């Protein structure tokens, strides 16, 4: 199922519409600057033809993959993002993607051990390489740690550069909060940022989800963001702050 981004020709193979368009400029690189630079170069058609991003949930793999597709589109290139193993996404979806300039495949670990998916991915990899197209993939683990049944696929996935994405530091997370809030027109202030960092989960996904909820409540009640307002949002999510 293809979901166009804000009317762009770019399509993301997702079961749901994206709430917003992830961009490379929004991704706070922290310890992952080399990986972000490599993704940016490949999206522009100037970098490696194959990149593998490895990292646990919360390190921003999906953000980078989606942002790479948007960056490619903005430079006049065709790109697709495919979240593997999701409901509504089948191996046949990979059959006609080799005409694109860039394909971004997410969650390789979710299809490891599935013969149909592995063969479809192996064939796509070869077709993209033959046509000089680019592929960026994301997985929770490195290829040799995935439960892949097709040895040739494991070998292909080890051909290009591999980047292990690391969690952001607290300082990076504070920078992410501040920058994301400003893009939403919110002024958090140092005290609110410290409060969020103390009582919220500190991975980017959790922080962005909390910020969206805070923004929504602030708009509904026409109130400035404050510690009491953030406390209410955390309470609704079942997080106690001891206050």
Q: How is this structure best summarized?
A:
The protein is of the alpha/beta class and 243 residues long.
Show the helix and strand layout.
Layout: E1 2-4, E2 11-13, H1 33-43, E3 50-54, H2 61-74, E4 79-83, E5 102-106, H3 115-130, E6 134-139, H4 151-156, E7 162-164, H5 170-183, H6 189-199, H7 204-221, H8 227-236
Parallel strand pairs: 2-4, 3-6, 3-7, 4-5, 5-6
Antiparallel strand pairs: 1-2
Helix pairs in contact: 1-2, 5-6, 5-7, 7-8
By CATH, the topology of the largest domain is Rossmann fold
Rounded to an integer in angstroms, the radius of gyration calculated over CA atoms is 19 Å
**CATH H-level superfamily title of the largest domain:** P-loop containing nucleotide triphosphate hydrolases
Q: What's the shape?
A: elongated
Summarize model confidence as the mean pLDDT. Answer: 88
Number of strands: 7
- Residue share in β-strands: 5-15%
Helical stretch tally: 8
> Strand pairing plus helix content: what structural class?
alpha/beta
Largest sheet, in brief, is: 7 strands, mixed
Structural features, described:
The chain is an alpha/beta fold. It has two domains: 2-164, Rossmann fold, CATH 3.40.50.300; 170-236, Orthogonal Bundle (Helicase, Ruva Protein, domain 3). It is built from eight helices and seven strands, in the order ββαβαββαβαβαααα. The chain has helices at 33-43, 61-74, 115-130, 151-156, 170-183, 189-199, 204-221, 227-236; strands at residues 2-4, 11-13, 50-54, 79-83, 102-106, 134-139, 162-164. Strands 1-2-4-5-6-3-7 form a seven-stranded mixed beta sheet, sandwiched between helices. β5, α3 (115-130) and β6 (134-139) form a beta-alpha-beta unit. α1 runs parallel beside α2 (61-74) and α7 (204-221) crosses α8 (227-236). The N and C termini lie far apart (46 Å).
């Amino acid at each position: 199922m293809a979901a166009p981004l804000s009317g762009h020709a770019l399509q993301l193979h997702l079961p749901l519409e994206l709430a917003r368009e992830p961009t490379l400029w929004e991704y706070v690189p922290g310890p992952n600057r080399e990986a972000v630079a490599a993704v940016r170069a490949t999206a522009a058609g100037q970098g490696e033809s194959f990149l593998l991003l490895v990292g646990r949930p919360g390190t921003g793999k999906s953000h980078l993959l989606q942002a790479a597709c948007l960056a490619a589109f903005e430079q006049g290139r065709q790109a697709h993002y495919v979240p593997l193993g999701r409901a509504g996404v089948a191996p046949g979806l990979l059959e006609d993607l080799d005409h694109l300039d860039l394909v971004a495949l997410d969650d390789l670990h979710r299809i490891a051990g599935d013969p149909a998916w592995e063969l479809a991915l192996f064939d796509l990899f070869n077709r993209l390489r033959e046509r000089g197209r680019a592929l960026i993939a994301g997985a929770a683990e490195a290829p040799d740690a995935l439960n892949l049944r097709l040895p040739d696929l494991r070998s292909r996935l080890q051909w290009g550069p591999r980047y292990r994405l690391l969690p952001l530091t607290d300082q990076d997370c504070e920078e992410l909060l501040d920058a994301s809030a400003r893009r939403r027109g919110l002024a958090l202030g140092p005290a609110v940022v410290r409060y969020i960092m103390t009582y919220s989960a500190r991975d980017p996904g959790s922080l962005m989800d909390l910020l969206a909820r805070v923004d929504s409540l602030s708009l509904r009640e026409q109130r400035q963001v404050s510690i009491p307002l953030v406390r209410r949002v955390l309470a609704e999510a079942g997080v106690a702050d001891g206050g």
